[in-house]
Write a structure and sequence with these properties.
The chain has four helices and ten strands, in the order E-E-E-E-E-H-E-E-H-E-E-E-H-H. By secondary structure, it is α+β, with helices and mostly antiparallel strands. The protein starts with 13 loop residues before the first strand and ends with a helix.
Length: 224
Amino acid sequence: MSERDGAPPFPLIRLETLEDLSPETGAGFLRLSRRRLVARYPDGTVSEPFLYDTAERQALDAVVIAAHYLAPDGRHVFLRSSIRPPIYYRTPADSAAETGKRGQLWELPAGLVEPGEAGDSGLRRAALRELHEEAGFPLDGSRLSMLGPALYPCPGVIAEKLFFFDIEVDPVTRSEPPLDGSALERFGEVVDLPLLYALSLCRRGDIEDVKTEIGLRRLWEKYS
């Protein structure tokens, strides 16, 4: 099989919902979906029934934006600090190798695609909005382009899909980010790093966010 043939075909496995056992939820950000399923296999056999939990939310997909510019010492990229409660509340019992960073990550600017932002134009609006809110760049999409195909970051838990963009910016035009009102975004820092240095932080484990490492590596491949 050659590269131009694409990915190998999948086995014909189908899932069938026997029962929806999702609990009633309030106005939380995420909803728990619990289903009793069976898997039907290509040879005609069927699995025993099993429970499967997934997380769902109204705004399911997200955009990730690599804002960059060419400087005398090479290409630079903008990252933003974030504090993530799920990581903050990890305990030593959760892992054999804790970092001790108390839930803080360096990330590319990113955010949710709101209802009504479907299609290419909607995704671009979402990307420009999030770049403005989180990094302080003006809403100018003339240099915005897709940065590779979309990906599922955690397909065993949530059907979220990430759409990657890059945009060449003028660092002089950046202002204080207006943010979106979230308590978790206050006092976040925006940093301007050489792209090669940011990639070295990925290799050292100082950048631990998977979407950010993927975006940085795609940016390097595009402009190297």
